[in-house]
Amino acid sequence: MKNQKVLENINSIKKKINKISTESIFYYDRGAYNTHLKQKKNVEIIAISKRQPLKKLVAALNIGHKIFGENQVQETLNKWPTLKKNFKNIELHLVGPLQSNKVKDAISIFDFIQTVDREKIAKALKEEEEILKKKISYMIQINTGKESQKSGVMPDDADDFFKYCKEDLKLNIQGLMCIPPYGEDSSIHFAYLRKKNLEYKLPYLSMGMSEDYEKAITFGATHIRIGTAIFGERQPK
């Protein structure tokens, strides 16, 4: 993919962000949607680069994009160390589930892990931070749809888990993340996550992908995770 096409795609998304950011924001309270004017703020585009060829990533890097998301630790280790040597100030986010045996590698390569969702992983992250003498940032993934096949702490357990991560382990929890159920209206999930984020007084809210990021922004997303709308379809597994 040529640099120009990636630039066009990113600029198109930025224009939509700017338009939405000057309009209203929705929130859910006492069983109803409400709205108020949103103060314009920056929305970060996380370019989801899983299963994308290096030439597409280089195209994005060449036009100055710095924030990328990956789903798997091993794939990240295979392609990003060299890119990070050649391009400065890259910020890598893990947006896929994290396995216990990959915690050390995850701490070593990522700047942000968005999928903290259980005590075992949280404790392992804390231990590896101390071993590696490295602090990174985190988001807690909440399974807003209560889907058994999906990662994320269940909503009923979210308050206790947040306190455990923030107060007991003192992890640098910066926000919340969710992936709404496929085929459902994502509004109720985005509204719920915004409400919890306000309760926890966290700065970041990661929600919205290529098909629903505009809606996510109206509910206060600070980070949107965009893959195909920037790079096109992924390579088959």
Describe what this molecule looks like in 3D.
By secondary structure, the chain is of the alpha/beta class. The chain has one domain (3-28, 40-231): TIM Barrel. The chain has 9 helices and 10 strands. The strands form 2 sheets. The chain has an 8-stranded parallel beta sheet with strand order 9-8-7-6-5-4-3-10. The chain has a two-stranded antiparallel sheet with strand order 1-2. Helix 3 links the parallel strand 4 (67-70) and strand 5 (91-94). Helix 1 packs across helix 2 (54-62) and helix 4 packs across helix 5 (119-132). It starts with a helix and ends in a 6-residue tail after the last helix. The mean pLDDT is 90.
Task: Give the helices and strands, then pairings.
Elements: H1 3-21, E1 24-29, E2 32-37, E3 44-48, H2 54-62, E4 67-70, H3 73-86, E5 91-94, H4 103-109, E6 112-116, H5 119-132, E7 137-141, H6 158-168, E8 173-177, H7 187-200, E9 204-206, H8 213-218, E10 223-226, H9 228-231
Parallel strand pairs: 3-4, 3-10, 4-5, 5-6, 6-7, 7-8, 8-9
Antiparallel strand pairs: 1-2
Helix pairs in contact: 1-2, 4-5
